[in-house]
Amino acid sequence: MPGNLHVRNLDDDLIIRLKRRAARHGRSAEAEHREILRQALSTELEPTFGELAAQLRQLTRGRVHTPAEELMREGRDER
Asked: pTM of the entire structure?
């Protein structure tokens, strides 16, 4: 089932430009909006797990990390 997306607080000028662009392409403003999003997101590459992990390591570099087994033991002890 397709989802819905509601965009609020758009400038009037942007709405007018969207409607004009839609008219040039023979589409409704809603269909034009979908097409713009599809085109914009179709060229964007999703990061791999390795890239995301590298970013996380970079963000948390220098921090003290608690080993997972300690956290699991604490969780069991709290029960």
From this structure: 0.59
